[in-house]
Amino acid sequence: MNQSKKVEFKKSITLWGATSLVIGTVIGSGIYSVPASVLAGTGSPINALLAWLVGGIITIFSALTVAEIAGIFPEEGGIVTYMREAYGKVASALTTWVFAIIYYPAVLAVLSIVAGDYTRALFSWPETVNGFPVNVLIGLGTLAFILIINIISTKLSSRFQIFASFAKLLPIIVLSIAGILFAFQNDTAVNFSQVASGATPLTIATFGTAVAATLFAYEGWIGVGAIAGEMKNPQRDLMRSIVIGVAVVIVAYVLMNVTYFFVMSPDQILGSAALGSDVATLLLGATGSRLVTLAIAVSLFGSVNAYSMIASRFFFQAAKDREIPLSRALDKLNPKTATPVRALIAVMLLAGLFMRQSFYQYSAYVNHTHTLSVNLKCHSIHTYQHWHLSPLSTLLSQNSLHQLQA
């Protein structure tokens, strides 16, 4: 009997720990960078908000459907398990390689680099030290810090995730309240009736492009299925965590966009290079802006933690299924902490290697695998619908598939 059978994951993740993981994987820098792209595709604040709502509806439909599948297979692996049950071991192995070797390490590299950018800006540090980019150094330090937290215990990393998720929501709450007060004092609600200069006429194609941009910002929630085996009550809490987490994200995104339109005109938003920072400066001044930047940096650390937890479970499950090299070395849990230490180290090493690439290459890795994942999820749902899912879930999954592939 090998060690992986003697030592099992501890059931230490609660409903709120799993919910914070959903929030942590979804809310990142997208809420501060994507709104301008959505506005450019729609031309006006009202149409942009409609695009965010449509993207949110598609996401919640998908979440409801996947939540039911997660309730059927409440075990480690998440999407890998779903693919194996729907299509067999070959599809499961390919999915594992795409996510474990490319998608999650690339996402971790991106998030760590962006966390380095915000940290460097917060303390006004130089761009390079002896010719080496400071943001990369901070990024490597972030990976090391998160690795240590995850090695110590799953409970510690889960608690850190709850704290980081609160840090994600804090600037959104503060800026939303300040934005509403700003609108009442300055009568800026008129911004909602304005149209961006040079805006192209709204068509189904341009609106669809805008909705697609919101879907990128909403992506990430399905990863929580990978830690189902460590939840105290996965049959009950896994479904709830996905739905609650996605609902919180939708509300947060809509509130943040309303704040942008209260504070800045469409032309100002399109001309802003750092939308979140510019809005924070207008509402709270330089000190407030620095506090928001700090909160964003902490939230990005939380995103690194969330994706590290998920990616390491992908590695561990792949090793258990003997689908990757060195499987017999990577399928071990630490006997004292019951954490997948070797899988965590492997994920972090891959993420560190990805940091040598350009940001454009990061985006290519993430976007291509993200598109593949959407199709894999939706088609696997169609396979399940004939023998597991309710008529409501079938209807929702069909709607999500048609919208996502449009």
Question: Short summary of the structure?
Answer:
The protein is an all-alpha fold and 406 residues long. The protein is built from 16 helices and 2 strands. It has helices at residues 3-6, 15-26, 30-42, 45-72, 79-87, 89-123, 134-152, 154-186, 204-218, 234-263, 266-270, 275-320, 327-330, 341-354, 359-385, 391-405, and strands spanning 128-129, 132-133.
Model description:
The protein has helices at residues 3-6, 15-26, 30-42, 45-72, 79-87, 89-123, 134-152, 154-186, 204-218, 234-263, 266-270, 275-320, 327-330, 341-354, 359-385, 391-405; strands spanning 128-129, 132-133. It is mainly α and 406 residues long. It has one domain (3-405): Up-down Bundle (Amino acid/polyamine transporter I), CATH 1.20.1740. It has a two-stranded antiparallel ribbon with strand order 1-2. Helix 8 packs antiparallel against helix 12 (275-320). Residues 1-5 and 385-406 have low confidence and may be disordered.
Question: How is the secondary structure organized here?
Answer:
Layout: H1 3-6, H2 15-26, H3 30-42, H4 45-72, H5 79-87, H6 89-123, E1 128-129, E2 132-133, H7 134-152, H8 154-186, H9 204-218, H10 234-263, H11 266-270, H12 275-320, H13 327-330, H14 341-354, H15 359-385, H16 391-405
Antiparallel strand pairs: 1-2
Main features:
406 residues, 76% helix, two-stranded antiparallel ribbon, mainly alpha
